[in-house]
Amino acid sequence: MIHAVRLHETGGPEVLKWEAVPRPEPGPGQVLLHQEAIGLNYIDIYYRTGLYKLPALPAVIGQEGAGIVTAVGPDVTEVKPGDRVAYAGPLGAYATDRILPADRLVPLPEGVSTRVAAAVLLQGMTAHYLIHRTYKLQKGDTILVHAAAGGVGLLLCQWAAHKGAQVIGVVSSEAKAEIARAHGASHVVVGYGALPAEVKRITQGAMVPVVYDSVGRDTFFASLDCLAPLGLMVSYGNASGPVPPFELSALSARGSLFITRPTLATYSAKRADLLHMGREVMKAIQSGVLQPRVQQEFRLEDAAEAHRALEARRTIGSTVLVP
């Protein structure tokens, strides 16, 4: 037997239950992974609450982890038993051991621990595609990053600053403002009530070419008002709830704006893209471009408490669950 955190219904953190389950066996193209660390991400809350639909119940949520391959099924050529690997994407991470497709695994280089990899791979690959593909960040750009002291936010600040961009970070407290500044944010705005006016002041009226918004409902229109004409609104999360329906004329009235709702699943669908992004994240960690903050650690069986902390915005940087 192994253990997993399962939910038999959607709802609050209390629906997450620590249970014994049968040990699975890998089939063709699959591996059995013994997990040493599991990443906590806001998307886990979307699945737990029912905002994002689960294939069936009972279910195991979680999309990121790292550990050691303990068994492989037929036709597996990508990895072998004993390999250290990480993954980001397939549901089912909240377990001590789990089955995964071999072609969804990213090998870990020496010097990158499973704890760091589990905390950073999903968020790091998200940051990578956001500034390399969704919007091709250029030296000298000024960008706006919401939740700048969060997992993805801190990585965006660091990577963008390394590429020569000026980052305006938005955070919810002065304590988080100091952390964002220490990780590459040139300017930090606490709260979003007067955000467009602050961005106008900082940019001397030019506004920004791109906004990275993971908050959703509460910040959406303020984010649009921070964009320069022909600017790009990147809405990649719903921490405050989904963005409500709006008139497309809101984009034209603000200067012929563009909007996108990207997902890591789309950008990493091809194995070549998955490996490229994964390797770029690992290289950035090894070189010091990214300095992940694994700030919180919870036992896997305490996943409900981890969810409460994340929803209450008591977390900074990345959080891991440890079996």
Residue-averaged pLDDT: 95
| CATH topology category name of the largest domain | Quinone Oxidoreductase, Chain A, domain 1
The CATH architecture assignment of the largest domain turns out to be Alpha-Beta Complex
Helical fraction equals 25-40%
Tally the beta strands: 15
CATH class of the largest domain: Alpha Beta
Strand content: 25-35%
Oligomerization state: single chain
Outline the low-pLDDT stretches: none
CATH superfamily of the largest domain: Medium-chain alcohol dehydrogenases, catalytic domain
Question: What can you tell me about this protein's structure?
Answer:
The chain is of the alpha/beta class. The protein is built from ten helices and 15 strands. β14, α10 (303-311) and β15 (318-322) form a beta-alpha-beta unit. α2 (114-134) packs across α3. The longest helix has 21 residues, at 114-134. The two termini are 14 Å apart. The relative contact order is 0.15. The mean pLDDT is 95.
Put the structure in a nutshell:
The chain has 323 residues and is an alpha/beta fold. It has helices at residues 42-49, 114-134, 151-162, 174-182, 195-202, 220-224, 249-253, 264-267, 271-287, 303-311, and strands at residues 2-6, 17-21, 30-40, 64-72, 84-88, 97-101, 106-107, 142-146, 166-171, 187-190, 208-213, 227-235, 258-260, 294-299, 318-322. The protein folds into 2 domains: 2-121 and 268-322, Medium-chain alcohol dehydrogenases, catalytic domain (Quinone Oxidoreductase, Chain A, domain 1); 139-261, NAD(P)-binding Rossmann-like Domain (Rossmann fold, 3-Layer(aba) Sandwich), CATH 3.40.50.
